[in-house]
Structure to design on (1126 residues):
C-alpha cells in the first residue's frame, strides 16, 4: 500500500479572492471588490407599479398605500413621448429597436432624468428642476425630450449593436510563487480595459439633448445659461474642448459648464452646418476609424473639431465683449461679502440687521450647502453645525443607481422674527426608504435642531411677520403648491391646489401679514403673484410673460424688491407701489453677471446673491438707489451664434404647446380597477448584453512541469496560447431593479492537447478546458413578510474555476522488486466550485448587514496514466479534496466625503466586520487500494472573525486647484478561534491585497494582522489633456509603509512584524469620453528577511525545505476602473 500527498492545493482563501478579482475585471464602473452600501438601494415595498403602453413606449409609474404617486405625471409622459418621437427620430434617421421604457419616480425629492442607452430604459424623477444655473422650463416636456434625444443620438453614434456594448482586453500576471505546495501565486498585474462601441463626448450628448430640434422650444438658451457662458468667456475661463468631453475631476460648476458650453457649441454647429450636421457628426462618431470628436468633425464638416472650437470661442469672445461694452463701462453692484465657494445663495438678514444667514458650499467641490451666519458687527463668520450635515465625514445619498445626493440644506431659509432660530429644509429618508424634504428649525445659540414637518416634501419656508405661521412649498406628482404650517400646533393647510405641473417658488410675506407673494411658472418664465393666506384673491403682481421675474422680497415699509431679466441680464428692481409697478419701477444694480435673491434689513440695507465667473457670491448694497441713467436699462441680447435660428417645423412634425398638458389629471380610483388605460406592472427585462473578453491569464510559465525539471520548456508562442482565455460576460436586469443577472464564462483553448479539430470541439474536451465561470442573481424586492426599507435582498452567486496541471503529479514506483525507484508523471486538474447565498439588508445609507451561507466543493482529478509498477493503466480518478459549508454574518459601514479628488485621496471611513462558521473536510492523502486511488479526509470546524477598516483623511487646506493631500490608515485582522487548523484555511496579508513588499503567500497564518500608513499627494493635479480617445486628468503619488504579522500557534510579538516601504504612481484617466481608467504602478521593498518551512514532503527545485522572503523590490501594476479596490 502506498500513500500519496496532493502536490498542490488551490487554497481556500484563493477562491475567496477569485470572486473579488472577477468583479474588478468585469464591472464597467469603479466598483470595489468589497460589498458597498452605496450600491444598494432600499426596498420600497409600499409601492404598487402600473404600466401605460403606447405605440413606441412603456410608461411605468407607482402608487403608494395612501393613493399618492406619479399617475398624473405618467399620463402626461404618455402623451409627450408620442408627440416627440417622430421629430427626434427623423432628425437622426434612427429608431430604437424595442419599445423604450420610461420609469417615473416620485419617491425622492430629486430632479433629474437618466437615459440608459444600452438598455432602452429612461428614468424620470417627477419634481421639476430648480437650479441656480438654469432658467425655468416646462419640466416634463423638456426632460422627456432631453432624455429621449439622448437615447436616439447616442445609439446612432454606436459602432455596433447596443447589445454588445464593450469589448474587454485583460491581462493578469502572477507573482513568482516559489513555494512548491502552491500552484500559482497571486496577481501582481491586473489590467482590464474595455473598448466601448461609442465615443460620444459629453458636451455633444448633452448639447444635442438640450438643442433637441431647431424649431422646438421645450428647452432654449435662457438668461441663466447665457450668464454662465458670458462670464466664463469674458474672464478667459471657458472650458477647453478636452474639458468638455467628460465630467472627470470637475466641480459642480464645471460640470454645469459641460452642459452649458455643450448646448452653445452644438447650436453653433447646427447654425453653421444645418441641423443635418448634427446627424452627420453623430454618424461619423460611429465609424471605427474615428475615436474622438476632432477626427469625426473633419469627416463630417471638412474642418477638425479643435479648429471649429477655436473659431467658435474666438468669435464668441468678440461678440460678448462688444455686446457688454456699455454694461462693463457702467457696472454697478454691491460690495462682495462672501466669495469663497461658488454656491452662496439665499442671504437673509437677521431681524436686528446685524447678521446675514446664507447657504454656502464653501470648501466643497459639489453643491453640498450648509448654513453660514455672517456677523456684520463683529466681522466674524460661523457655520451652523446641523446633525449629519456639518461633519466632514458624510454619506452620499444614492438616488437609484449612480445618482448621488449629499446630506445638506437645500432651498431658501428664513429667520424667526425673534432672531433666535432659522428655519430651513433638508432631505432625509423615511421608514419606507423614500427621500423626502422636510422643515426644521435650529436654535443658533444652542444648535438644537427641531423637526417641524414629517414627510410633507416641504421646502422654501418663510415665517409670517408675527412668527405664528410658516409658508412653504410642497411637492407631489410633478406639481408644487403653497402651504401654511401653524408654528405652534403644526397643523398644515393648503393655500394653492395646482395639479397641472405648475411650480411655485420662494414664498415671502408682506410686512402686513395679509398677503403671500411667490413665484409661479409652468414653462419658460416665472412671474410674481400674490395670494391671501386663506387661499383667496390670487392676482398677478409682476407678470410680463416675456420676462422672468423671481425672488420677491420686502422692506419693512412694504416696498417690493425682486430680480428680473427684463434687460437680458438679471438685475434687482424695486417698486413702492405694488398696484402700478410699470410706472414706479427702479433698477438698483447693473451687473455683468446677474443679481438674485434680494433681502432687506430693518435699516434698509440690501443683500443679494451676485453671479460672477467664480460662481454665486453674497453682496451688500448699504444704500440701494435707483440708477437714473439706466431707468430703462441697458439692453443686452445674447450672441446669435448661441441662439437657435428661427424656423418652422417640416410638414407633419409640429409638436404641441405646453399648455395642452394642463387638463391631464391623475387616474381616479376607478381607473385602477377598470384597467382601461393602464395595467398592473409585469416584469420588463432589458435585452441581454454580451461583452466579449480576451484575457491573457499568465499563471502558466514556460516550464512544463514543476515536478520534473528535465522536460523541455514551452516556446513563447506555446506559452502565449496556453495562457490565452476567450469568453464573454452577459447581463440583464428587470428595469425596476427587482431582479438582475450577471455572469461570464472564459475558457482556455490551449489548456488541453487534442489530436484534431474534431477532438477539440468534442463535448468531452470542451468540458476539460480550463475555465473561469461566474453567475450572480440578485433579487432586490425584499421578503414579502418584511414591509420595511431594510427588507432582505437576496443574492445567489456561483463560481467555478478549472485549472489543468501538466505532469503535475510525480509518483515514485518500483517496476520490479529489485529495481531502483522510478518516477511516473500524471496530469492533474482542479475543479473548484463555490455557491454563496446571501441576504443583505440596507439599514441606512451607511450600514449594510448580511447573513449568508456558503457551500464549496473542490475537486482534483488525476488523469489516466500508465503505471510501470502495475504494468497497466491507472484510470482517471476524481476526488473532492475539500468540501466546506457554513453560515456567516457580516456588516459593512461606509461613510465618505464626496469631492473631485476622492478617487485618489479618499476622505472617510469604511469598516467591514464578519464572523463565519465553516465545517470542512480536507483531503489529507491518497491511498492506493486495488489499483485505485482512495481519498482520506480530515474534518475541521472553523470559527473565524475578520475586521477590516480603512480611514482616509484629506488635509483641510487641500483639494482646490493645487490638488488634494491626505493620509490613509488601513488595519485588517483575522483570527480562527480555538485550536490551530491546517494551513489550507490560512488567511494572507501579503501581495497586492496587503503588504506588497512580500509575495501574497509569504504572509499567511490562522491569525493575521496588517496595518498600513500612507500619504498621497499630487504631482500634476490638473493636466486636462486629450490624446486620441484618452483624457489625461491627473497624476498623484502615494508613499506608504506596511507592518504585517501572520501566525498560527503563538503570537510572534510586534517586534517580529514584517515591514516594508513603498511608493506608487497613480494616473487618473478618462477613456472614450465615457469610462474612468485608473492606472497605478507601485514599487515596494521588504525590509525584513525570513524563511518559511515547507510541509513535510515538499522541497524547492533546488532541494531546499524552506523558502526565503524579504530584502527585495516587488512591483505591482494595475489598470482598472478605480484605486483602492481591494
Amino acid at each position: 500500500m502506498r500513500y500519496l500527498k496532493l502536490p498542490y492545493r488551490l487554497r481556500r482563501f484563493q477562491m475567496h479572492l477569485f470572486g473579488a478579482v472577477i468583479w474588478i475585471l468585469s464591472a464597467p464602473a469603479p466598483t470595489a471588490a468589497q460589498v458597498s452600501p452605496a450600491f444598494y438601494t432600499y426596498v420600497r415595498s409600499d409601492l404598487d407599479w402600473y404600466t401605460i403602453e403606447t405605440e413606441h413606449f412603456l410608461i411605468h409609474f407607482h402608487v403608494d398605500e395612501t393613493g399618492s404617486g406619479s399617475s398624473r405625471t405618467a399620463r402626461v409622459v404618455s402623451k409627450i413621448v408620442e408627440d416627440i418621437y417622430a421629430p427626434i427620430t427623423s432628425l437622426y434617421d434612427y429608431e430604437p429597436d424595442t419599445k423604450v421604457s420610461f420609469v417615473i419616480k416620485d419617491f425622492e425629492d430629486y430632479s433629474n432624468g437618466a437615459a440608459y442607452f444600452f438598455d432602452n430604459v429612461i428614468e424620470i424623477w417627477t419634481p421639476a428642476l430648480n437650479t441656480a444655473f438654469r432658467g425655468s422650463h416646462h419640466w416634463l416636456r423638456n426632460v422627456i425630450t432631453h432624455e429621449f434625444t439622448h437615447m436616439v443620438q447616442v445609439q446612432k453614434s454606436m459602432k455596433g449593436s447596443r447589445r454588445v456594448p464593450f469589448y474587454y482586453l485583460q491581462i493578469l500576471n502572477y507573482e513568482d510563487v516559489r513555494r512548491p505546495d502552491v500552484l500559482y501565486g497571486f496577481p501582481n498585474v491586473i489590467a482590464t480595459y474595455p473598448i466601448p462601441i461609442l465615443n460620444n463626448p459629453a458636451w455633444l450628448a448633452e448639447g444635442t439633448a438640450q438643442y433637441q430640434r431647431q424649431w422646438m422650444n421645450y428647452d432654449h438658451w435662457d438668461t441663466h445659461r447665457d450668464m454662465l457662458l458670458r462670464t466664463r468667456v469674458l474672464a478667459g475661463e471657458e472650458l477647453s474642448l478636452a474639458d468638455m468631453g467628460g465630467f472627470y475631476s470637475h466641480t459642480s460648476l464645471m460640470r454645469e459648464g459641460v452642459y452649458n458650453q455643450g448646448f452653445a457649441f452644438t447650436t453653433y454647429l447646427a447654425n453653421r452646418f444645418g441641423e443635418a450636421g448634427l446627424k452627420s457628426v453623430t454618424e461619423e462618431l460611429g465609424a471605427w476609424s474615428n475615436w474622438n470628436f476632432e477626427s469625426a468633425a473633419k469627416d463630417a464638416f471638412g474642418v477638425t473639431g479643435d479648429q471649429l472650437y477655436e473659431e467658435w470661442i474666438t468669435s464668441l469672445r468678440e461678440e460678448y465683449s462688444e455686446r457688454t461694452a456699455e454694461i462693463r463701462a457702467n457696472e454697478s453692484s454691491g460690495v462682495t461679502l462672501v466669495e469663497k465657494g461658488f454656491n452662496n445663495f439665499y442671504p437673509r438678514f437677521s431681524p436686528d440687521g446685524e447678521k446675514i444667514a446664507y447657504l454656502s458650499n464653501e470648501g466643497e467641490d459639489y453643491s453640498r450647502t450648509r448654513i453660514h451666519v455672517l456677523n456684520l458687527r463683529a466681522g466674524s463668520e460661523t457655520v451652523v453645525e446641523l446633525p449629519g450635515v456639518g461633519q466632514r465625514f458624510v454619506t452620499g445619498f444614492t438616488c437609484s443607481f449612480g445618482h448621488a445626493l449629499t446630506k445638506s440644506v437645500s432651498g431658501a431659509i428664513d429667520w424667526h422674527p425673534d432672531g433666535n432660530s432659522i428655519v430651513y429644509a433638508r432631505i432625509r429618508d423615511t421608514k419606507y426608504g423614500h427621500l423626502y424634504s422636510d422643515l426644521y428649525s435650529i436654535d443658533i445659540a444652542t444648535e438644537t435642531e427641531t423637526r417641524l414637518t414629517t414627510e410633507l416634501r416641504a421646502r422654501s419656508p418663510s415665517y409670517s411677520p408675527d412668527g405664528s405661521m410658516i409658508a412653504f412649498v410642497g411637492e407631489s406628482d410633478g406639481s408644487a403648491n403653497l402651504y401654511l404650517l401653524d408654528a405652534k400646533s403644526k397643523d398644515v393647510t393648503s393655500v394653492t391646489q395646482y395639479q397641472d405641473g405648475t411650480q411655485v417658488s420662494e414664498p415671502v410675506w408682506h410686512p402686513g401679514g395679509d398677503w403671500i407673494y411667490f413665484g409661479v411658472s409652468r414653462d419658460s418664465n416665472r412671474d410674481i403673484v400674490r395670494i391671501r393666506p386663506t387661499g383667496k384673491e390670487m392676482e398677478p403682481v409682476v407678470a410680463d410673460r416675456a420676462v422672468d421675474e423671481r425672488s420677491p422680497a420686502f422692506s419693512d415699509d412694504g416696498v417690493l424688491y425682486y430680480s428680473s431679466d427684463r434687460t437680458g441680464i438679471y438685475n434687482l428692481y424695486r417698486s413702492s407701489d405694488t398696484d402700478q409697478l410699470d410706472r414706479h419701477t427702479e433698477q438698483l444694480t447693473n451687473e455683468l453677471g446677474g443679481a438674485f435673491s434680494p433681502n432687506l434689513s430693518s435699516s434698509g440695507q440690501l443683500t443679494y446673491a451676485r453671479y460672477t465667473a467664480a460662481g454665486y457670491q453674497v453682496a451688500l448694497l448699504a444704500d440701494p438707489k435707483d440708477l437714473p441713467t439706466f431707468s430703462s436699462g441697458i439692453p443686452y441680447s445674447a450672441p446669435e451664434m448661441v441662439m437657435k435660428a428661427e424656423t418652422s417645423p417640416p410638414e407633419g412634425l409640429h409638436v404641441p404647446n405646453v399648455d395642452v398638458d394642463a387638463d391631464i389629471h391623475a387616474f381616479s380610483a376607478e381607473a385602477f380597477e377598470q384597467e382601461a388605460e393602464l395595467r398592473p406592472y409585469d416584469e420588463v427585462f432589458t435585452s441581454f448584453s454580451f461583452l466579449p473578453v480576451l484575457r491573457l491569464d499568465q499563471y502558466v510559465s514556460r516550464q512544463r512541469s514543476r515536478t520534473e525539471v528535465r522536460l523541455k520548456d514551452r516556446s513563447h508562442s506555446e506559452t502565449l496560447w496556453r495562457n490565452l482565455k476567450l469568453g464573454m460576460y452577459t447581463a440583464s436586469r428587470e428595469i425596476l431593479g427587482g431582479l438582475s443577472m450577471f455572469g461570464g464564462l472564459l475558457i482556455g483553448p490551449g489548456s488541453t492537447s487534442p489530436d484534431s479539430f474534431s477532438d477539440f470541439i468534442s463535448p468531452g474536451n470542451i468540458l476539460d478546458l480550463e475555465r473561469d465561470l461566474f453567475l450572480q442573481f440578485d433579487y432586490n424586492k425584499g421578503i414579502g413578510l418584511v414591509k420595511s426599507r431594510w427588507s432582505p435582498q437576496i443574492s445567489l452567486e456561483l463560481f467555478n474555476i478549472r485549472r489543468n496541471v501538466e505532469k503535475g503529479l510525480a509518483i515514485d514506483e518500483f517496476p520490479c522488486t529489485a529495481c531502483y525507484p522510478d518516477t511516473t508523471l500524471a496530469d492533474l486538474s482542479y475543479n473548484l466550485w463555490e455557491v454563496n447565498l446571501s441576504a443583505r439588508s440596507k439599514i441606512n445609507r451607511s450600514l449594510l448587514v448580511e447573513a449568508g451561507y456558503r457551500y464549496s466543493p473542490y475537486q482534483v482529478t488525476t488523469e489516466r496514466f500508465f503505471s510501470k509498477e502495475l504494468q497497466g493503466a491507472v484510470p482517471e480518478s476524481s476526488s473532492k479534496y475539500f468540501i466546506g459549508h457554513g453560515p456567516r454574518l457580516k456588516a459593512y459601514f461606509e461613510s465618505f466625503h464626496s469631492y473631485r479628488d476622492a478617487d485618489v485621496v479618499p476622505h472617510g471611513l469604511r469598516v467591514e466586520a464578519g464572523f463565519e462558521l465553516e465545517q470542512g473536510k480536507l483531503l489529507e492523502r491518497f491511498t492506493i487500494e486495488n489499483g485505485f486511488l482512495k481519498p482520506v479526509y480530515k474534518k475541521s470546524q472553523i470559527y473565524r472573525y475578520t475586521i477590516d477598516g480603512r480611514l482616509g483623511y484629506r488635509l483641510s487646506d487641500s483639494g482646490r486647484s493645487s490638488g488634494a493631500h491626505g493620509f490613509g490608515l488601513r488595519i485588517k485582522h483575522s483570527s480562527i478561534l480555538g485550536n490551530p487548523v491546517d494551513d489550507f484555511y490560512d488567511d494572507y496579508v501579503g501581495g497586492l491585497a496587503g503588504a506588497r513588499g512580500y509575495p501574497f503567500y509569504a504572509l499567511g497564518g490562522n491569525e493575521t494582522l496588517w496595518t498600513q500608513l500612507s500619504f498621497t499627494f499630487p504631482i500634476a493635479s490638473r493636466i486636462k489633456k486629450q490624446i486620441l480617445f484618452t483624457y489625461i486628468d491627473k497624476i498623484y503619488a502615494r508613499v506608504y509603509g506596511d507592518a504585517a504579522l501572520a501566525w498560527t500557534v503563538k503570537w510572534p510579538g510586534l517586534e517580529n512584524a514584517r515591514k516594508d516601504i513603498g511608493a506608487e504612481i497613480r494616473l487618473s484617466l478618462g477613456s472614450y469620453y465615457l469610462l474612468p481608467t485608473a492606472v497605478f504602478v507601485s514599487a515596494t521593498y521588504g525590509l525584513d528577511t525570513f524563511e518559511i518551512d515547507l510541509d513535510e514532503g515538499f522541497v524547492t527545485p533546488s532541494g531546499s525545505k524552506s523558502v526565503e522572503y524579504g530584502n527585495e523590490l516587488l512591483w505591482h501594476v494595475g489598470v482598472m476602473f478605480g484605486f483602492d479596490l481591494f
Summary: Confidence is low (pLDDT under 50) at residues 390-406. Residues 332 and 590 are 5 Å apart (CA to CA). Residues 163-196+687-733+739-779 form one domain.
